[in-house]
Amino acid sequence: MRNMAKIAIINLKGGVGKSVTACNLSCILAGIHSRRVLVMDLDKQANTSKFFKRFSDTADTMGDVLELRVKLPDVIQQTDFDGVDIAPSNMSMLLANKNVMFDVRRPQADRLKNALEPLRNDYDYCIFDCPPDIDMATINALVAADYVIIPVDCDEWALDGLAEIMDQVRDIQHGYNHELAVMGVLATKYDRGRYSMQTVNQIANLHIPAFRNEDGSVMRINNSVRVKEAKSAHEPLYKFAPKCKPAEQYKNLAVRVMEIVEGK
Predict the structure, then answer these.
(1) pLDDT per residue over 188-203, tens digit each?
(2) CATH number of the domain that 184 lies in?
(3) N or C of the chain: less Cβ packing under 10 Å?
C-alpha cells in the first residue's frame, strides 16, 4: 500500500485507552495484515514507548523532533514486533511543547507534517498517540493527520471534552488541513453497566462518525483484566490472550480502519 495514512488518536481525558488502542491497532495492522506501521508517541507520560520497551530518559525523542533539533529518522526505533517502528517520547515533551509555542520565528503547527513527508512511502500507517491536552504536539498531529480516532471510556462523564475536541478539529480543518476527517468515536472499557449502556446510546446518537459493527451496532472495547495483563506483559492482546473479547474487538477495529483507509 504505502503512501502512509496518518491517524491521530486523541481525547482530552486521560485513561480512556488511547495508548492501549494505539499499541494494539498498530500490532494488529502489522502482525495480521502485513502493513508497515510507525507509531509516534507524543505523550510525555510515554506509555506507548514503555509498552514497546523503547523508553529512555536520555535518548533523543519526539520532543527533539518537534523542536527541530533532530530529524525524525534519527529517533525512530524498531520494536520487537515485525513491521512496527516507534518514535518514542519522554518527559522532555513537556518542555518541547512550551519551546515550540514560544518559537514564533519559525512555523509551529506543521513540523510533524514536514518531518513525515520524506517517509510517506516507507510506511502504510502512522499512528499518533496524542496527549490529553490541546498542546503543540496535538496540534501538529492534527495538522499532519488524515484521520482522527476518539476513544471514550464508558463512564458517567464519557463524553466530557468531546465538544472541545471537535472544535479543535474544525479549527484545524479550516486553517491548516482541509482533508482531516473524524474516522470515528470508539467506546472503550465497556462493562454492561448502566453508564456503559448510556455511553453507547449517546455515541449512537452523535452527529459525528462512530465505529460500528457490521450489524450497525456501536463498536465497543470491553473492559477486561486481560487488557492490563497484556500491557504489563508488553504484548498485544491478540497474542497475549487471543480468545478474550477485547482481542477480537481490536481485530475488528483494525479491519474497519483498513476498510476506511484502503477502501476494502
Answers:
(1) 988 877 788 888 888 8
(2) 3.40.50.300
(3) C
